[in-house]
Amino acid sequence: MARASTCMVSRRAVTTLSAVVLAAAGCLPGEIADFSAQASTRVVHPSSAFEANSGFGRVLAGVYGVTADGTHASRLSVTGGSGTPFASYAIETGGDFKLGSELFHGCSTPASGCPVDFGATAVGLTSFGAEHLCTAFGAPASDELDIACESDLGTIQALHVAPGTSTQLGQALADLPTTSPWGVALVGAPGASAIYVLAPDTRLNPLPLPASLEGATFGIGEVLAAAPLPESASNGLTEAVLVVTRLPSVSRLLMLAVGIDPSVGSLASLRLGCVDGVEGELTVAAGDVTADGVPEVFFSTATAPTFAHLDVRQLDVTTLFRESDCLDPGTADDPVTTKVICPDLDASVACAGFGETLATGDLDADGNQELLVGAPDSDVDGHRAAGAVYVFPGTSSGLDLAGARVLADSGPDVDARLGAALTTVKTGLPDAAHDEVVAGAPGADRVFLFLCTGIPGDSAEGNARCLP
Amino acid sequence: MMDLGRKLSLAGLLCAGLLGVVASGVASAQDAPVVAAPATPDAPVAAASATPDAPVAAASAPPGATRASLEAAREHMEQGQARYQAGDFEAAIHEFEAAYAARSFSAFLYNAGVAAERLGQWSRAADFYERYLTGDPHSSDAADVRRNVDNLRTRALAEQPVQPIVTVTTTVEHHVVESGTETPTGTTPTETTPTGTTPTETTPTETTPTETTATETTATGTTPTGTTPTVDGLAETTTQVMKSLLSVQTEPAGATVTLRWGDRVVATGPSPFAQTLDEGEYALSVEHPDYRTIGERVRVHAGKVYVVIVEMSQGHFLGYLQVVSDPPGANVFIDGREQGAAGQTPFRSVVDTGTHHLTLERAGFAPEERDVEVDVGAELRLNVPLARVDYGRLRVVASQPHARVLVDGEEVGEVPYEGQVSPGSHEVEVEADGMKTFSADVTIERGQLTPVRVRLRPRQGRSAAWTTLILGVGSAGAGLYLGMRGTDLRDQLSAERDAGTLASDDPRILRGRLFYYGADVAYGLGALLGVFSIYYFLRDPLPDSDGRVLEPRDWALSPSFDRDGAGATLTGRF
After folding, report:
1. Verdict on whether the full-model pTM lies above 0.80
2. A305: β partners
3. Mind telling me how many Å the CA of A197 is from chain B's nearest CA?
């Protein structure tokens, strides 16, 4: 009786395949989670309005206000710097976090009518006349300030001062707090050696400077920072704001109190203090770190020979009430400045360019402003100049240097220069509003929104999602 | 002791057998006729039987005699004897007549006459005897036969129209002479008279020999005719003593054969020589100019046929040897193997008289040996049963050369294969590279050859299946690698997500997804290839190798000779 001879072969094949299948079944990868949606750092990419390598993220402006229907909203305006378009992105609307969706953009084509250097600076405006959620873009080479509002899409209002002259209007921009209804923003015009106040009625009014500064104001307005100032520190001015600027002709950092002189009922400014010897590339910021109502001033310079920002100086404004003498931060009798150096927080981050950008914001809604320091030249994970942002928590006694955090791209790119631009946007609207760090990485055409900074009181450290 | 009937039967059978042997031997030797040769001037042909007192020239075989006619005559002779033994005398007569028609030996006519006398057909018997005298007018008992014929004619006339049939019981007495001859002495019937009839019959007379008498009773259905045979002469009324026939064959033929009784020449003639003789002892001499004269004494008993073969060159007499085996077809070796097999059973041949050692061999059976004694002119019949050997043989042939043969898992050789296997059931496999293995249960019989024919068919190539399997395994391996890479990335991303440092556009997210997708695709491809490989492995459109186990048969053993020696080989043709 003949018997089949293929059984052995088929058994062997089946056995082999079964082993393979079992092994494969045991090693099936499964699905990879939607980490993009769970990431604590959201990344904004440029829309088609921007060309590749346009420097998207070089200029940032956080916008907070209400929509036409009265819903609290926060936005982020981004340009690539001078001569680039702008785009406005939604951050949160009525508590609904939806970062990433572009709301509108403009000045993307030469035919748009925007000035050629549009986008060199930007500042968010809560309102502008009847419009809301606006951003002011400076085009200093064009002596023009352009206003784009979400409530009036497609319309860009151009503002000028002293037509026919090179005012460099918009060289510097600073938003004014809502406690100063006399203006929504300060606009520097160093070419005119003036600082203008963008009034709510959309007019640009020159800021009156103290008479004592006469002769030294040449080029004033190249840098600007503003912060609320209590009356106790404003020398009697009401609705006062601390304005920080520099007198470049004398290399003097100037702190002014700007507000309404109740005696005349008009806007006035008083000198609060100054620091001499502030030379080179200057970055300034002001915010109430200690939550005592009086803002602290932070500045960083890049001077010879390295022309690199190395550290940040902190000024306590209350000690600046000297009208005659200016402090020299380089001298030994300079007790009022505190040097903030780049902390060694992460071995993977080699800090560099520390202080090139500065910003303040209350990340944990505790009333204390945190200091944000950009270090765009930092190497991260061996990626040259990937950039990083340092966050120093604010406490009643000042910056918590030990509690500093470093924020970087989890997938750093070479020459991304994260931190070349810094701003904050608000989340947790309307009742749990707090600031989030926004850093631009123009070298990678990306903007980072760090939802989870690890600041105590902020989103809990280690949460999978640090959404408000 | 034997009664007349049995003696006649035995004589008849022997005569028939020896006639056949003579016919075959002579025919195979020279195809020469075995009956009397034509007469020569100096050696008149004597068709009649000779006695010591009446020498006659022997008759030689008529020209044109064939072996077939001798066989036919023998067959009829045997049948006639059988019929005579059974009491069917009419049928016996017909057989004797048929024998005579095949070969015209007068003895057949004589025997027919004897049977006719047993029937009480006197006239018919007389006719047979007359014909006998016609064929052998110079026989020694011619006068007696003539007288018997006259008596029979007279009886026939007297008993007309029809003699009633009576049942008689005869008593046959045998006289055994001291010389060893045996002579039937006739019968003394005791009759019963049927009612209503008065039979007239003669009362047989008998003589009482001086020798001892053996008595037998034989019941017959006919009225016997009593006869009183004598050694030296015939009774006046009947001749119931069978004649004996002596045939002398020489190699070469043409020798002068002389029979003497005492000093007197009984018969002489050239060979082949045939002579009817009465009982007695004769001196036989054979002369040939090219050979030395040889002689032998021959004792002739009544009713027998003697065939003497003489090999002149060897100078001795030959006898007949007949060997029958069960089953037939065994090689017969006589006195060793040097000369090879003398023939196969059923074996009939002339051999030298004397003692011989026989060996019977048949493939598949154990050899048998016997020592036999062959007398002059006598035929020795040997019946040898053969027993099968305690092993069998297996023969395997296949369509694929050099295919390997395995028996019970053990390789035993290549095709064509033939080898010894123990009896019983065995698993026989035939395999070859690239071919499907054939397997079958084969039952081997003792002493028999079991052929197996195998047709191997090619094995379906498995290269495609193996290739597919390898690719499938490779694909699965790639999937495993990609999955591991994706898992690594997933773990990194999970850690950074939990630490709050993961960016939403981290390139590892996309990379991890790609790894996972790639792993899924690779696994899917591997599974698909695996399925295909299984299909390719299992798919076998070609039929299996097949074969047939043929009926067991006896194997043939043939001698093998070469320069180095001799032996035997098994041969088979497939």
Report:
1. no
2. none
3. 38
